[in-house]
Structures are given as structure tokens and as C-alpha cells.
Amino acid sequence: MSKVIKGGTVVTADHSFKADVLIEGETIAAIGQNLSGDEVIDATGCYVMPGGIDPHTHPAMPFMGTTSADTNYSATRAALAGGTTTIVDFCLPDPGQSLLEALEIWDRKSVSSHCDYSYHMAITWWSEQVWREMAEVVDRGINTFKYFMAYKGALMVNDDEMYQSFLRCAEIGAMPLVHAENGDVVARLQQKYMDKGVTGPEAHAFSRPPEVEGEAANRAIMIADMAGVPVYIVHVSCEPAHEAIRRARVNGNRVYGEPLIQHLTLDDSEYLHQDWDYAARRVMSPPFRDRKHQDSLWAGLQSGSLQVVATDHCAFTTEQKQFGREDFRKIPNGTGGLEERLPVLWTRGVRTGRLTMNEFVAVTSTNIAKILNIFPRKGAIMVGADADIVVWDPEAKKTISAATQFSAIDYSVFEGVEVSGLPRLTISRGEVCFADGEMKAREGRGKFLRRPPFPAVHHALSSWKALQTPQPVERRKENMPIGV
Ligand code: URP
Ligand code: ZN
Ligand code: ZN
Ligand code: ZN
């Protein structure tokens, strides 16, 4: 049973052209003129683009005494409704827990997925066992490890653990991802505001200024350079972190930066809202920033110093947010965005002229596939690639509302935002999963996506490191002090 998408304009990260796309089974079989297939999908007036890849999501994340309310079931439905066909989740071992045991728990959690998924493995503690198991994790198709420099007393790791573990990444062809915030300083600032009686959600933002992020991003980048690994900084929210990334890249370091759709479009005035619930729903780390930081993030996407746009989708209900009623430190950190990422980026990015359509495809899909080493199976409209395709209607409009979303929570941080540009169809491995507002995907159809280790960048970095390593001076005996 083949399908042919006819009459649309194919938009890739490189160029745009009129062509039909033939799908055989789960794969793109041909791209060209006047193709025919068993079933015809009319894409007149639409763009035919690679399905979105969200490199940063937390379905059913156990965190801060609760579990994020969008499960793998609901988060993957939200993804497909928003034009995203692959998500990457974070496997989080408890301190002391085997990485492989945590992986089994995550595999059980993922069985309800409607779209393809992959994992990053978090390093939440350090031991000889973790060192050993990291190689096994890579063998199982996970090539990225995640480090939290914040969340002191919970997920946070120290510099020694990061350095040792980054060295291990270099050895086994893996890449570290870093949540960059100085957790020690954050903890002190949080205590300062609590002592002053500032207990509301605004204090969440006050206690995490851009400097804590800039400092940590710079530290992670320097540690990665010393260990000889590339590094990926998640949820880059501000100019100081972006500046550290930009500077490192100009110096030749392989550093990647991921802004979120939230930080690109929402600002810190949200925390000053009179309604406690309204403000608490927007609590995430790093917090939304002053508008001037948004300009920096957009500039990064335009110039290439930032490469991808993610969501960090980690959705808690209003009731869960209320755990922090008396103490902002207990408000579960996280916001949603899986369903909104592409439409909001299109509206605020492509429609305004900040991004071209091709840049849009690059930052929502192709760059991510390349950085995570799944290109061109994912992130490409190419013969032989998985048929993960969005038929995008640039003229379709809607006003974002929690009343109509697929996410399981009772609000949206994008409530009331008018978008123009929406998926008409989302196709995942050849199957029409979402069409004209209707979910067609079957629970459990999503497959785990293996990501092989990174031979090219690591080989280049290790060759260069070996050449640069300081060498001991071989001294002849007559040149040594007498008696040595
Ligand atoms: O506030 C956030 N970002 N919650 C999810 C966990 C994380 O730090 O990415
Ligand atoms: Zn984080
Ligand atoms: Zn994270
Ligand atoms: Zn996250």
C-alpha cells in the first residue's frame, strides 16, 4: 500500500521545490514529478516538511515529589497534533540506582507512545558501576548523557563528577547534555528570598538570575573542552549562556545550544501576575526572562550560534503547582509546549521574517537529527528516510486554548496566542496519525529509536587532543642535578 503526497512544496533545511513524495510502507520511496501511488494525499497550497523532532521532553517525569501529568500517552498525542513525530525523553536513575534498571522502568513507561521516541540517560550519581554501565547504555542505542548542575540535594552533580563522566563520554563516543544553572548559588538565593518573606512564584525568577545560567554554561563548556567532548547546553534562556556558547564556537569548540519556544516568546512579567495560579503555572527552570534575552536567542537561531528549538515539555496541573502555595521552592518546575512548538515558531519566527522556512525546518528537525546522530533516517525528506512528514498549511489559523489541547493539563502557557500555520496532516513512518484536527494514531505504535555513538566528531576531537597533550621532557643524565 503506497501513498503519494501531491501538489505541495517540499521544504527542507536546504531548499524548497515543487514535488510529489511517494511513500512505500514506512519509508520515502521517491521524490519527483507526476508520481502515482495507491492513495493520493492532496497537499495543494501546503508545505511538505520533515516531521518535528523534540530533543527535550519529560513525559511522566518523577520530579519534586510528584510526576508530570502529561504521560507518554498524552504527550505523544500532543506531539503529533503539533507536527512532531519524534520525542526524546530523559531516563532518570535515582541516586544509587543502576542505569540499566532505570532504563527498564522507562521502557515500561514508553509502551503507550503514539510516536517514535528516544532517551537521554541522566547521570545523577557517580561510581565505578555508573562508569561501567555508561558503555552498556551506549550499546543500547543511547548516545547522550544528561547532567543537572542545578536542583541541589536532588539531581545535581558536582564538577568532579562531571569531569570524570565527560571523560567517559569521550571514551565511548557519547555526548553530554547539560542543564546549566549554578545550583549552589540558586539554593542560597532561594533561602534569601524565603528569609525576606518573598514566598510567591516571582521569587522563583528572582533566585535564578541570568548570571547563574551564564556561569554554569561557561563552566560546563570549559570542562567539556578539557575532557575532549562536544557538549550540548539545554534550555538556553539568556544572553550570558548564549554568549558562552557563541564564544566557545568561535574558538572552535563543538558546542550546541537549545533555546525553548517558551523562552523565545514568553517573558518574566508573567511571574508578576496578580493571580498566584497564573504565575505558578509558568514556573520552570531556567525561568522566563526579560525581553532583551529573547532578541539574543532569536539572533542565535538566525546566525547559527544556537541550532535547535525544543520545549522541555514537563507539564504539571494547577493542583500540582499548588504544592508550593507557601514556598515557591516546592512549585514543581516545568511547562508544556509540545503541541505549540511548531505553530508558535512559525507564527513568531517565519511570519515575522526572523526565520526562513528552511531555517524553521533546520531548527525544529534537521539540525536536531544531525546533532543526535539520527540523520538522515529522521529529519529529512530524502529517499530511504523514515516517512515522518508534516503537511503544513501556512494559512490555517487557531487561537491556542487549553479547552482544545491534547495535553492532559488544565491550562496552557500559550493560552490566547493566535497562530497562523498549522499541521494539516502529521505522518509518522508512513501512517497518517493526525489529520484535519483529528487524532488517528494508535496507542503503542511508537517505536524506540536507537541512536548510535558519534565516531566523526569524537575522532576529530581525540586526534586533536592527542596532538595538543603536553609531553614530558626526556632529559639526559648529564643535564640533571647531581645525585638524581
Ligand atoms: O523546569 C524544568 N525545566 N523542568 C523540567 C526539568 C528540567 O530541568 O529540564
Ligand atoms: Zn533542565
Ligand atoms: Zn533538562
Ligand atoms: Zn528538561
Automatic annotation (TrEMBL):
Question: What domain of life?
Answer: Bacteria
What does the sequence similarity comment in the record state about its family?
Answer: Belongs to the metallo-dependent hydrolases superfamily. Hydantoinase/dihydropyrimidinase family.
Q: Which Gene3D superfamilies match?
A: Metal-dependent hydrolases (3.20.20.140), Urease, subunit C, domain 1 (2.30.40.10)
Recount the PTM note: Carbamylation allows a single lysine to coordinate two divalent metal cations.
Q: How does it assemble?
A: Homotetramer.
Q: According to the UniProt entry, where is the signal peptide?
A: none
Sorted alphabetically, the keyword list is: Hydrolase, Metal-binding, Zinc
GO cellular component terms listed in the entry, alphabetical order: cytosol
Top-level EC class:
hydrolase
Q: What does this protein do?
A: Catalyzes the hydrolysis of dihydropyrimidines and of the structurally related DL-5-mono-substituted hydantoins, to produce N-carbamoyl-D-amino acids.
E.C. numbers: 3.5.2.2
Q: What is this protein called?
A: D-hydantoinase/dihydropyrimidinase
* Record-listed N6-carboxylysine modification sites: 146
GO molecular function terms noted in the UniProt entry: dihydropyrimidinase activity; metal ion binding
> What is the reaction catalyzed?
5,6-dihydrouracil + H2O = 3-(carbamoylamino)propanoate + H(+)
Q: Which InterPro entries match?
A: Amidohydro-rel, Hydantoinase/dihydroPyrase, Metal-dep_hydrolase_composite, Metal_Hydrolase, Metallo-dep_Hydrolases_sf
Residues covered by the Amidohydrolase-related domain: 47-432
GO-annotated biological processes? nucleobase-containing small molecule metabolic process; pyrimidine-containing compound metabolic process
Q: Record's Pfam families?
A: Amidohydro_1
Per its Swiss-Prot or TrEMBL entry, what cofactor is needed? Zn(2+)
